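dumping this here before i forget
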Amino acid sequence: MATTTQEITEAPESQEIDSKYRLIILAAKRSKQLQRGARPRIDIDVTKHKPTRIALEEVIRGKVRFHFKDLNEKAAAEE
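structure:
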C-alpha cells in the first residue's frame, strides 16, 4: 500500500493537500458528516470500517472537495 502522500499526488482530479495537518482536519470534518448520516462517497463496507477511516480514504482518493480561505484577502475585503 502506498503512503498517504503518494496516493494524494497520484490522484489526477484531486486537489493538492499541502500538509498532513490539513489532511487530518479535512478528514475530521468529513468524519463528523459521516457520523451525522452522510453517505460515503467511496465503495466501502461501512460495517467493517469506522467513519474516521472512511473519511480519510475519501480525502486521499480526492472525493472530498474543499477550498482555502485566505485570511489576508478576507481582511482586505472588510476594510
